[in-house]
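Justification of computing resources. Each target in the renewal requires a structure prediction run like the one illustrated here; the chain below, 184 residues long, is used simply to show the kind of job we budget for.
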Amino acid sequence: MSYVKTFLPWIIFAVLPSSQWKWAALAGLVVAVVVIVQQRAAGAGWDAMIIEVGSAVFFAVLAAIAFADPHSPVHDYSAALSSGTLAVIAGGSLLVGKPFTLGIAKQTTPREFWDQPLFVRTNVIITGVWTAAFAVTAVVLAVFAHAGNAHSTPATLIQVAGFVVPMIFTVRYVAAVRAKAGAR
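Resulting C-alpha cells:
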C-alpha cells in the first residue's frame, strides 16, 4: 500500500484527461503535499519520502507552466517528463546510496533488519528496477509525443504500465527474498 500512496500523485496525473493537464498537474501537487503531510504526521522520516518530495517539486513546476501557458509545448511531453523525473529521482537515490525503496521498506520491516546486507541489497535491486522502468517509460512516451501521439490511449496505458510492472516485480521479488531467507 505504501507504493500506491507514494505514486498516487503520478497515477492521478496519468489518468486524468490530457486536455485538463493544468488541473491534473495541480491535482498531482495537492495530492503530493497531502501525502507528505499525512506521512510526516504518522512519523515517517524524510528518507521514506524521497519520491513524494520530488513529486511536489515536479508538480509545482508543471502546474506553474501549465497555468502560465496552457498551450505550452511542454504539454505534449509532460507524461515523458514525469516518467523521466521519476527515473532521475530514483536513480539519484541509488547514486547517493539511499535507494528510495529503503525508506518505504523500513516502515514495514523490524529495525533489526535495516542494516543487514540482504535488506539493503534487496532495496538497491528494487530501486534499480523502478529506475529502469521509469527510464524506459520516459523514452517510449517521448517517442509517442514526438510522433504526435502523446495523448493517446496507448500512451496512457504505457504510463500506467510504468508503475504497475515495477510494483508487481517488487511484491514478487520481496516474497522470493523472504522465502529464500526463511528457508535458511
